Amino acid sequence: MIGLFGGSFDPIHFGHLRPVVELQQALGLDVVRFIPCALPPHRQPTVASAAHRLEMVRLAVVGYAGFVVDDRELQRPEVSYTVDTLKDLRGEYPTSTFCLIMGMDAFVNLPTWYCWQDVLGLANIAVMRRPGAQVALPAWAQQIHCRQRSEFLGASSGQCYVQEVTPVDISATHVRNRLAKQTDVETMLPATVLHYIQQHQLYAKP
């Protein structure tokens, strides 16, 4: 099963990386593809350019076993819809099983996504949840919820599994705000990414 983790990554930080490492280890995923989006349909436009965000992700995943960067969404000029990405991947890897990785907040809002039922027809979903968080799954999610990891790993598509991961209280907005104020962010993101940001003066206060 190939893990797929998409996002704006504006910038990428340890709040992205550390939970995905835990989930990768828990599910035994050999590969996790980090997929920067071009034009996110559910968020404001990004601050850094696509080229800068892509390079920051490339720098961030160095040293993480099985983490690779997939720039296919940045090659398309239109809005980044997950269903289109999954169709591309299915054509490229017809015998593979895919697992979308996302947080609980994004998961419960899946029905607001473009062609969300087609998304479920193309991939499974691994949901990252904070330990002890009491979040009731909506009725549609209860119908596809695998309580056993083995059941989830054996499914070809359309199933979800909830994995507890250690919370990392970092957001890209917080990182950008601290950078604009020239406040220390060394513990929030890889040193290589911070160096790149400083080198290119990204997120500096106008």
Structure description:
- The protein is α/β, with parallel strands linked by helices.
- The chain has one domain: 3-Layer(aba) Sandwich (Rossmann fold).
- The protein is 37% helix and 16% strand.
- The chain is built from 9 helices and 6 strands, in the order βαβαβαβααβααβαα.
- A 6-stranded parallel β-sheet has the order 3-2-1-4-5-6.
- Helix 2 packs antiparallel against helix 9 and helix 3 packs parallel to helix 5.
Q: Major sheet: order of its strands?
A: 3-2-1-4-5-6
Query: Class by helix and strand content?
Result: alpha/beta
Question: What does the overall shape look like?
Answer: globular
- Rg result: 17 Å
SS strand fraction: 15-25%
Please give the share of residues in helix. 25-40%
Q: Helices and strands, in N-to-C order?
A: EHEHEHEHHEHHEHH
Q: Count of DSSP E strands?
A: 6
DSSP summary: helix tally: 9
Named at the architecture level, the CATH assignment is 3-Layer(aba) Sandwich
- Which runs of at least 5 residues are low in confidence (pLDDT < 50)? none
What is the first-to-last residue Cα distance? 44 Å
Our count of domains comes out at 1
Could you state the CATH homologous superfamily?
HUPs
CATH topology type: Rossmann fold
Largest sheet data: 6 strands, parallel
- Return the average pLDDT rounded to an integer: 94
| CATH top-level class | Alpha Beta
